[in-house]
Design goal:
The protein is mainly beta and about 450 residues long. The protein has strands at about 1-5, 5-10, 10, 20-30, 35-45, 50, 55-60, 65, 70-80, 85, 95, 105-110, 110-115, 125, 130-140, 145-150, 155-160, 165-170, 180-185, 185-190, 190-200, 210-215, 220, 240-245, 250-260, 280-285, 295, 325-330, 335, 345-355, 355-365. Helix content is about 0%, strand content about 40%. It is flat, with a radius of gyration of 28 Å.
Amino acid sequence: MALSAAVAGLAIVATQGGSASAANVSQVVDCGIGGSQTMALTTTAPATATLGSNFHVKIAPSSGGTASGAEIKNMVTSFQIPSGATYVTGSAALSGGSGTLGATSVSVSGGVIQVKVPGPVANGASFTNPTLDFDLTASGTVGQTLKMTFKQTGAYTLTAAGSISVSCNANTPLTTLTSTVIEAAATTTTQATTTTSAGTTTTGAGGTTTTQATTTTGPTTTLPPVVTTQNWVPGTACGVPEITTAPANATAVTITAVGGHGGKGGSQASSSKYSGGNGGQAVGTFAVTGGQTLSAVVGCNGADGQNGTATSTAAAGWSYGGATGNGYIVLGQTGAGGGGGGGSSAGCLGADCVTGSGTPLVVAGGGGGAGVSNCAGTPAGAGGAAGAASNANGDGGYGPSGNKGGNGGNSGSTSGSIQGGNGGVNVNQANGTGGTSRPPVRSTAWA
């Protein structure tokens, strides 16, 4: 089941052989004060890999970039190694690139592989980051799809103008950079030789001659099963659960859940409206059998902040996003309200897929609502992005001197609640409470 923004899908996966091929892909990242950027890449990986085998992945920039507006340095690009794949120690290498990149390096830790470019690259200068090559082992389950993506939080970080730290989060749903399906190994029987007696002949001298026939059977190879994939997209509105049934002979389901987006902060006079945070994204592959009931609910986006009132509408989903408070222009004169938190999205086993009911398999938290400024001409803070299948919450944005725009939701945690995030205010007013729920099953692959 793949939940993406306002849609969801169910994928029943099996495998057959395929060769490596190149793809041109792009991922939009939100850099806050640095605006949005598009990371264009050319990637290569095999379509399938035998369970337990190693396969090669190549990620190369499609084009170069330019340092625009300031010198940049300490650039780090982070990619997420998928659940079901294991990095082959020592296999990562960098090649190519152009410009004043400095001593580039690559590091791998906690399922994240990073390309580090120290620079510096002067303002107005062009550069091209190096190509990354590495090997992975297909260590998951047969039928599992291994998708390389950017790391959602801190996908791209750098230092600008000497000391300004810029962190760019990948917009959800995350772009699939490479896709490899794990297939079963072919089986081969051992060669056998069988000797049988064909008859006996008696000679005139009383002797006998026995003739024999020898039959040799060669090795027999059984190919992996042929795979079919089916996708399911629920037709209900966001916040409304819908069910489906796994087809006959189904063996696995891959679920990608993306939480609702946080609402924009309200504005007073000519102050800018900033967007809320992105919803979290979580992915998992689970064993299923034909006829099993599965369900999904897509989290709604948070309501935008309004002038002169708080955002009281909570975005529906597996759990609700948070409502917000509002600031004051002067004592007794109500100001604008912050954006509401997004609702969480989930894929569940069984017909129930709401907080406190059913069996959630994958849950992605909603993004935090944006902060609000009640000062004319002063921008509000942007909301925090939700955590991506981890315990981490996104950081909230800030108004010029007020409270933060609110944390993004926790997605896939085994110890925390699933929160849509609080909306921010410009002065010390109480924030609305984010939606909460009991912890879901962690969204990792299992057989």
